[in-house]
Amino acid sequence: MMPQRPLVHALILGIFCLVFGVILATTDVFTHDTIKLRAVEDLQNSLTLVIPASIHDNNPVSDAVVVKDNGRAVTVYRAMKGGKVTGAAYAIEGVGYGGPITLMLGVDPEGHILGVRATAFHETPGLGDRIDAAKSDWITRFTGLWLGNPPADKWKVKKDGGVFDQFAGATITPRGVVAAIRNGLAFFAQHKADILEVRR
After folding, report:
1. What is the pLDDT of residue 104?
2. Mean pLDDT, rounded, of the chain
3. Which backbone phi and psi does 130 adopt, to 5 degrees?
4. At CA 192, angle to CA 189 and CA 176, rounded to 5?
5. 3-state secondary structure of 144
6. Is the pTM of this model over 0.85?
7. DSSP assignment of 30-63, as one string?
């Protein structure tokens, strides 16, 4: 009887693994479309925060283009009105105290900022999380600025000789956001022709 006991335990463990594997696979099949739909909704919500509805009559997601930038593909969501590109939005990344910060940057055809919003980050609550527009208006202060206003060498926090405020006790986060926005504007300037081109 003793030699069969490990075999019985292995069989029970195998059955449990099989049952829970089937449950996980079934859950994945049934929730996959919902998760995908939620991701599209989140993207649409982010775009509405950085591209004013008044400047387009299209769905920017439908008029997206992919721009190659230093070996990586960047999806640019284009706002259009009357067949012309009136704005563009794309994800940019910076590095904060808590790791990567993902932002959505919206610009007009001249490269002026229409809006910026933090979409994913892990910054310290009460300090670095003030990049979230729901917690502070700091991120909204970039609206209307462009790479020449302020001058490119002033796109830094004040502590580094720039013009942008940092947070008391949290300089790394604003530093990362300002650098990401500066780089995002430089990306637009470099690829402006490709972004604004409308192919028929």
Report:
1. 97
2. 91
3. -75, 0
4. 40
5. coil
6. no
7. HHHHHHHHHHHHHHHHHHHHHS-GGG-SS-TTTT
